[in-house]
Protein: Hydrogenase-4 component C
Organism: Caloramator mitchellensis
Amino acid sequence: MVVLKYLFYVLVFPGLLFSSIVGLLLSGIDRKVVARMQKRMGPPLIQPIYDFFKLLGKETIVPRAASRRTFLYAPVVGLLALVTVALFIPMFKFTALSTVADIIVIIYLLTIPAVAMIMGGAASGSPYAGVGISREMVAILSYELPLVIVLLTIGKKVGMELNNGILTFSLSQIVEYQAQFGALITKWSLIPAALALLLVIPIKVGSVPFDIAEAEIEICEGPLVEYSGAPLAVFKLNHAIKMFIMTSLFVTLFLSGKGTGIVIVDIILQIILSAIIVIISISTLKAITARLKVEQVLKFFWTYPTALAVISMILVWFGF
């Protein structure tokens, strides 16, 4: 029974099937909202689902110069990492897996999809992929610092109340704290950290204006330029799942609490809040901002989100 339970968690909920469907729907919401902001009709909400199955049905072409095994397995490695992350993120009181150090686990696992894209691009042998790989590395350097500072700040804030001042790395403790003392977004010392994470979400997802690695018009999809068929479908699915995971993580970190006590209702509430964060953090920036250049991305993230995260860290460390 225990084995069946965990297989259900991995394959159905909150793992592969659930995170895929919700991620693709959030991607559809993003496209629809951006279209409306630009006074267009936009595609149907379920267009990303159509696109995913359409790609699955197309032929997979492996370049002659490619390292075949790495080229084909790279998107699957990224998918497995994202599905694992989905198991660790609580939805109010529900969580599939919980440890005392799940924040550390999530930080490492969220890096794997980007590394998988780099490996896949490098295995393709394309010069366009080479340019995209270098840009993906710049993106990683840009967003990891503010993301880690935000997570450390939240861990310190919660640890001061629940853990005798000791830094906590448990998302379950963060949810418990918010159930007792209210959502962390209401703590004025953490508002800069919340703003920093809202800025980090688009680049972590790989969305405009921070899509420097794929840059469709400029370098023809970058690391994905040689991909087609099912492997490309999996990479696109990874993008959608990452959108759900990052927005759901924001909800857990800043908007969680007691919930309703009814698991299904809490899950629906988590999805709704994730959709709102998509609109605020991804769609709005995409609609009003032109794509940034590589050097602008690095300068931007090492200036504004990092500064906001550091401000929150200083306030929290001094007991505010």
